UniProtKB/TrEMBL annotation:
Name of the protein in question: C4-dicarboxylate ABC transporter
Transferase among keywords: no
Residues covered by the Dicarboxylate carrier MatC N-terminal domain: 1-147
One of the Pfam families matching this protein, by short name: MatC_N
UniProt keyword list: Membrane, Transmembrane, Transmembrane helix
Lineage top rank: taxon: Bacteria
Segments traversing the membrane: 28-45, 52-72, 92-113, 134-160, 172-193, 254-272, 306-323, 343-372, 384-409, 429-452
Length: 453
């Protein structure tokens, strides 16, 4: 047991040190996994490396490359422009529209890609007198919902890891749970912050405000989208309008068709009880698009989410070493000995939420989903319910200002005087989700799952 505890302690220490130093946790974790595997687990180097999740790598690279092409050839920008133009002056719809748009972009491989909507959303909120807190929560909920789509990072990691462990979890079920819960959070945000607020009449125009803040978000695959500071038909500067884009180009229409094919293939295969290989589909569609538009294909190479590949790969490789050493089984036995598997499940969800509020959500999912397996096997907890609960709990806290998502929403709030208020309210919201998330998901998922299993 001494060797097992040492290995677990090293895992926690490496995770914490890399997070504090703001270094990709997977890059540090992978060589340490090799050292621990050789030294403590008495495994060969080939056995350690065999734990690297190649199937998840294929998923991430294939999906992010295909949607990288959609970004590069302007399809995503066209889709955003066309959607916003439909809203017109119906200000109350803007938060819901930004929820949907952020969810769609987040579903395209990398959840943080949804942050490209932040400067635009916060600028529109400022101009139209919408509470910035409502807009931030709407986009945060959309990002969380889209992240669990079968084509996005959180969904790929969560159901991919579960399926590799033999837990039957439909990717559409996982996405549905995340979508429904985040729609509820959107409704709560409307109730709490839906009252219009008065802002300075000399607020900066859309385009100027967005450009000023948007430059800081290029690292998230920043869109080239801009909103023109145009005038109402008379040209007197009396109003700002969202101008509809022209017709999409032939390549953009083909890309939209490919996106529909990918989504339809995932839905149909899942309904047929088959596990769709989304990575292979992404590779195939990306290859066709690259052959037809070589320039966009080259640009899309820089949009492949290598950071997430390295992060997940390193953590899961180390978790594989812990599994071979019996550490995961040991933790499962400890959880069962708490006296109530339900209490252990709530604590696991709470731990995922609390740590994710300050650290990497991707890392939390990669680490905690495997650690939940013994509790599922020995404690009578339905696997699909617990895995869904852990995933969603780790995601809904991401609007905390201590995370990348929350910090971005604070930074892109146009009115500098409103930023302290945003920080305070987002902190309260994020920490409340640490408590309410596990309780609510236990009541609506885990308990009913135990009753009907």
């Amino acid at each position: 047991m001494t060797a097992q505890l040492i290995a677990l302690g090293i895992f926690i220490a490496v995770f914490a040190i890399a997070a504090v130093r703001n270094v990709n946790i997977g890059i540090v974790m992978f060589p340490v996994a090799c050292i621990v595997g050789l030294w403590l687990a008495e495994l060969s180097l080939n056995e350690v490396i065999a734990g690297f999740p190649l199937s998840i790598l294929v998923l991430l690279v294939g999906v992010t490359y295909f949607f990288g092409i959609a970004h590069s050839n302007g399809t995503i920008d066209w889709l955003i422009r066309a959607s916003l133009a439909k809203v017109g002056n119906r200000d109350a719809l803007f938060p819901a529209v930004f929820f949907a748009l952020t969810a769609i972009i987040s579903a395209m491989g990398a959840p943080l890609g949804g942050l490209v909507m932040a400067p635009m959303g916060m600028s529109i909120a400022h101009k139209r007198g919408i509470d910035p807190m409502l807009m931030a929560l709407a986009m945060g909920a959309g990002l969380s919902a889209g992240a669990f789509a079968p084509t996005s990072l959180f969904g790929i990691i969560t159901w991919g890891t579960a399926n590799e462990a033999g837990i039957a979890l439909s990717p559409l079920l996982l996405f549905s749970v995340a979508l429904i819960l985040n729609l509820v959070l959107l409704a709560v945000a409307y109730v709490l912050f839906g009252r219009r607020k008065k802002f300075d009449a000399e607020a900066p125009a859309f385009g100027r405000a967005m450009v000023a803040h948007g430059a800081t978000l290029r690292q998230y695959g920043g869109s080239t989208l801009d909103i023109d500071d145009t005038t109402g038909g008379a040209g007197d500067g009396s109003d700002d309008e969202l101008v509809a884009p022209g017709r999409p180009t032939g390549m953009q229409m083909l890309t939209l068709l490919m996106m529909l094919i990918l989504v339809a293939a995932v839905i149909v295969l899942s309904l047929l009880g088959l596990t769709p290989d989304i990575g292979v589909l992404g590779y195939g569609l990306g290859a066709v698009a690259a052959l037809l538009d070589a320039s966009s294909g080259k640009k899309a190479m820089s949009r492949i989410d290598w950071g997430s590949v390295l992060l997940v790969g390193g953590i899961i490789t180390y978790v594989g070493v812990l599994t071979d050493m019996g550490v995961v089984d040991l933790l499962g036995e400890g959880a069962v000995h708490l006296g109530s598997p339900l209490v252990a499940a709530i604590l696991l969800c709470a731990a995922a939420a609390l740590i994710s509020a300050f650290a990497s959500t991707t890392g939390m999912l990669a680490a905690l989903v495997p650690l939940a397996l013994p509790l599922i096997a020995d404690g009578g907890i339905p696997g699909w319910a617990l895995i869904c609960a852990i995933g969603v709990c780790a995601s809904i806290v991401d609007v905390s200002p201590f995370s990348t998502v929350g910090a971005t929403y604070v930074a892109t709030t146009v009115d500098e005087e409103a930023r302290p208020r945003m920080t305070k309210l987002l902190t309260r919201w994020g920490l409340s989700m640490v408590v309410l998330g596990p309780i609510v998901l236990t009541l609506v998922l885990i308990l009913p799952g135990m009753a009907f299993s």
